[in-house]
Specification:
single chain; 369 residues; six-stranded mixed beta sheet; WH_DNA-bd_sf; transcription cis-regulatory region binding; WH-like_DNA-bd_sf; DNA-binding transcription factor activity
């Protein structure tokens, strides 16, 4: 689009810039983000987007915003710079965790949708020298999946390229106090306030929170805050962490931890388990072996993801998060930073929710009245 002098108009320049910067990823941010990025009004931005619409490169849909069409993506791949290459690093131990592999699967899926190359590299658990990874000329950005030494974070961020750490906050307990990368977290801790409110409404006043990761103690305080009003009365909230070290997390030790957890129950009316997989499943089995019914004898809340099939089978009330969605989010976050031309540091959260099912009910003393 040209003005009367035969020169490209402001909207024409803007549409060309949008195509150049966002074309390689095939992703378009919201109108608000684009207007802030280019320092223009929403009206000017829409005129620029209409030019791309008229060219058949961009389309829009209700509630989905603007996106590149198949024709647009084909044009972009032929005319724009080489396809970005992202490198994903994972420690050997983490690849044995089904939820972790779901996260990586989500990253692989989003990489295909976004037309980027994704290289997965496994690092030995005892590896500590990461100098060889500094300044990798073949990578445009990095992903660290789950727990990893802070030395790895420092090595990958040394050249200023975008780096996303994917996983829970406690997995980066030794990370530098000043974040030098973007960390994507499953924001579950605050959801436990909702769990606490639900148990309070069901008149539970003796609750156990059982976990094998010591850092989950923050969840105990969040649940406690739901009982802070004077009308809640006296509440006993017990935290129990069986003697299980991280390096000993084998199926057998997790079964033993579940056995110790159920044996620790003593008049508790609710049990909250902020983790899933073998530990949570074995707790269910131990409750059944001891003829402890839920919710008749005890209410049960478990944190899980799409790999925990037993949540549906036993209709367990749960704090639920899609790990696959988190893997997809890390690719989108890296591409956003690449499109903006700068790396960012901080924390961004991916969604989680509390789903109430049949494993939670009134406290036994109240139910019998």
């Amino acid at each position: 689009m040209e003005n009367k002098m035969g020169r490209p108009s402001l909207c024409g320049k803007l549409s060309a810039q949008i195509l150049t910067e966002y074309g390689p990823s095939g992703l378009l941010p919201s109108e608000r983000e684009l207007a802030a990025r280019y320092g223009c009004s929403r009206l000017t931005l829409r005129k620029a987007l209409h030019l791309l619409h008229d060219s058949g490169l961009v389309a829009s849909a209700p509630r989905n915003g603007h996106f590149f069409t198949d024709a647009g993506r084909g044009n972009i791949l032929q005319t724009q710079r080489a396809t970005p290459t992202l490198m994903l690093f994972s420690m050997e131990e983490r690849l044995r965790d089904p939820a972790h592999t779901y996260m990586i699967g989500g990253a692989v899926h989003q990489a295909r949708l976004s037309h980027v190359n994704l290289v997965l590299r496994e690092l030995a658990d005892k590896e500590s020298d990461f100098d060889a990874l500094r300044g990798n000329a073949n990578a445009d950005g990095y992903i660290i999946a789950g727990a990893a030494p802070s030395a790895l974070v420092e090595a990958l961020t040394a050249d200023g390229k975008p780096c996303v750490v994917l996983g829970l906050l406690y997995e980066q307990a030794d990370a530098p106090a000043r974040l030098c990368c973007q960390q994507l977290l499953l924001g579950t801790t605050h959801i436990y306030r909702e769990v606490g409110r639900h148990l309070r409404e069901l008149h539970h006043r003796k609750i156990m929170v059982a976990y094998t990761y010591g850092e989950s103690r923050d969840i105990v305080e969040v649940i406690r805050s739901a009982f802070s009003s004077p009308s809640s009365g006296e509440v006993s909230l017990e935290a129990f962490c069986p003697p299980l070290m991280r390096q000993e997390r084998t199926p057998e030790t997790l079964r033993r931890a579940a056995f110790d957890t159920v044996r620790q129950l003593n008049g508790h009316t609710a049990l909250v388990v902020p983790e899933g997989h073998i530990y949570a499943l074995e707790i269910i089995r131990q409750l059944q072996c001891n003829r402890i019914r839920f919710p008749e004898d005890i209410s049960l809340v478990i944190q899980g993801c799409e790999t925990d099939w037993f949540l549906d089978s036993y209709q367990i009330s749960c704090v639920y998060a899609e790990y696959r969605d988190q893997g997809m989010a890390c690719i989108r976050e890296l591409l956003r930073q690449l499109n903006n031309g700068r790396s960012e540091a901080g924390v961004r959260y991916t969604p989680a929710q509390y789903i109430m099912r049949q494993s939670t009910g009134l406290a036994p003393a109240v139910a019998s009245q």
